[in-house]
Amino acid sequence: MPRRTPRTTLDRLRTFRRLPGFLKTASVCVLVAGLLSPLTQTAVAAAGTTAADDYCGGRCSDILPPGENGNATLAQILLNQAFGTQPAHAEDQLGPYANLAGGYKGLTDATINTFFDDSSFGVPADQVASTEKPAGRGDVTIVRDKKTGVPHITGTTRYGTEFGAGYAAAEDRLWLMDVFRHVGRGRLTSFAGGAPANQGLEQQFYRNAPYTEADLQAQIDSAIAKNGARGQQALADVNAYLAGVNAYIDASDSGRYFPGEYVLTGHKDSITNAGTIEHFKVTDLVALASVIGSLFGSGGGGEVNNAVSLLAAQAKYGVEEGTRIWESFRERNDPEAVLTVHDGESFPYGAKPADAQGRALPDAGSVAQEPLVYDRTGSAGTAAAKRTTATTAKTALGSARRGMSNALVVSGKYTASGHPIAVFGPQTGYFAPQLLMLQEIQGPGISARGASFAGLSMYVELGRGQDYSWSATTSGQDIIDTYAVELCQDDYHYLYHGTCTAMEKIEQKNAWKPTTADGTAAGSYTMRVWRTAYGPVEYRATVGGRKVAYTTLRSSYLHEADSIIGFQMLNDPDYVKGPKDFQSAAQHINYTFNWFYADSQHTAYYNSGDNPVRASGVDTEFPVWARPAYEWRNWDPATNTADYTPASAHPNSVDQDYYVSWNNKQAKDYTTAPWGDGSVHRGNLLEDRVKKLVAAGGVTRARLVQAMADAGLADLRAEDVLPKLLKVIDSAPVSDSTAAAAVTRLKSWVTAGAKRTETSAGSKTYADADAIRILDAWWPLLVKAEFQPGLGDGLYTAITDNLPVDEAPSAGHGPTGSHAGSSFQYGWWSYVDKDIRSVLGEPVQGPLGRKYCGDGSLTACRDILIGTLKQAAGLTAAQVYPGDDQCSAGDQWCADSIVQRTLGGIKHGRISWQNRPTFQQVVEYTSHR
Which portions of the chain are predicted below pLDDT 50? Predict the structure, then answer.
């Protein structure tokens, strides 16, 4: 019986009343009985693996919910659907992860591994669950531990090591890997079914990365060719890894223990075993990389939306005043913004030019989004399907990308042990199975343990080496520009360097029919993208009456495989021996990330990404003409290469007193593409806590985890903005009884710490529930009442398109929609904070262009706040939390709860809300090589 998590922790899914018709209990029992015999592979007890050089001294830990095992046979899926049973190691990390929310206050260094797992190298002999020689090879062994089932891969040859990594990846994530190689090619619906969520997923990525098979192959060829011996080693590693993946496909197919989703989606027959699971090839990995890079590592875009809001501001206030107002909301370099590199060093990037050149702003009202989906038939033509397309397009084209992830790193000068401490990890959403997988890899030139995206795990991407650990957060600096290409002849030809040139039409035709897994009615559509030398067409408009197409050009476009060299270096103990080597490795990663490092003596930071060198006078915020004068310097359209800013120009640091990052601004004068880097940012939740710890000194692992966990339960609005709103209200006695009662509840909540926490672990009821409900209802009402009268309807709407008003836990946001955990990344909290302080007469650095609340009158502002507060207080829980496919209306806890979104057949229960990394490390090295 797999280890189960107590029901007090997980909100167990009751599947009996949710079963589709085919899953009747009796038929499940009969089918399972017939399928049980081929389920289990032989697991032979073995001696423990010999730990490689490990300098962490037992002080390295990690966690990755729900569990390492992301594969399930048909029988296991049916049992899970019918009775809620879990395959071994499918969710044994979910309970400890969830329990930190209720247990962090009493945390000590000795109890950290109650909520995390020991990430020391190797497996003690008494903790070995199984050992195997994949495909009978003598040069690699995969050992799995009893507690979590993580694969510990040890090879005596480089080929064997990578073969084992591929084999283990397929053992744990084959179905997920298959899903995402199809997503990366825009073919998910044809593979997994036409559900609206599948349509949205493939459309989101195909719009930004419409690659042909030749494009995918060219990218791996380019990455290998330009990196010499390391490039050749990377290709050999990839080929060995693929051989391991394919060996597992063959073994599981003949042994009939392949993932059951292949049966449920019609690719395999459960009785005859007819059907095929396609082997993986090199281009599949590039397709996978394009999905991950686009989702988490491609900052920029949104220039057309920026232009639309600027035009709205200029229409409202006039050109000069409107531009000033727009810039105040944009907050390119807000002096009050929290910084990762906070020692005052400046790293200029993306600044507003003194005399902008080449801007191609659209004529007012002329912008139209380029259609992606054509020729809809059947269920693809439903209103729901069309809504999915519209929502997906807005997400894909904006600059407010859900980067997520956080990091807290403290120098040894301020710790109790004298060694640096780090608590960090990526916030990649919650999936079942998880996008990431854990592994340890030990072989010639490789020594690492940690997490990798499934299907890209030939190297550990986030984790630890022998005497160092590293992690990343999404940075969001602008590596995407929008060009206005002038049309000629018709809508599908454009001027390229004076020559009328045909656009390239790229199409993907998908069709689906109902399956056991997805009952969506039959349908089909064609995704069509028009490509130019300046990237895919995203919008059409006129500029000065001339017809143009707006295209987006990303520096990592056609370079999805380039980062493989950086990850190879991070896994190489002979390469990374200190902070400078770490920074050098991170420089080989072309996606936009903040990278953090800790060993026993040093900490370090580096901001990665291929930042293009732009032409003088180009303003990165807006579209520019597609003409040679405004192109990236030394840009080659055939290869999409250009000059990039040098490593020294990227924010970087070694041994700063501490580092924090929660997708906030990197450094002084370094502008990021998303809006919202102002006076209040969720990064402040970390900054305030870590700064206080460092000032006190004697920081321990437990205290740094507590700081992270405490910030992860805080309501940013309540902690950093609500006290100022209450100060305005308290400027005179509150006579209205409804408002007064609401104020009392809100004050009580702030005094208690402004957290969204349960009354007790597993109660599924929030302490201060009424106050939380009131603020959730009040925030959008007060923002609209505060700003819309002054901005006007058009400008208010345009700015909300640049930056959403709110991102409470119960809102639909993040890469998995609602129930995604990550919250308070984007919102108007900085605007409200600056405006309210201005109205109160308090000093504000970088104020908004004018006062908005009550037109600057404290009395009028107070009336607005009390009026909207009364309105909010009168809304019922059912009105504030209307319910969805997971929760009934009015269930506040459930509305916030985290759901492991199913990408396969296994379901897991809901857990209480936390705003923290999905994969997380806690590290403190005691010695160094």
Answer: 1-46, 814-816
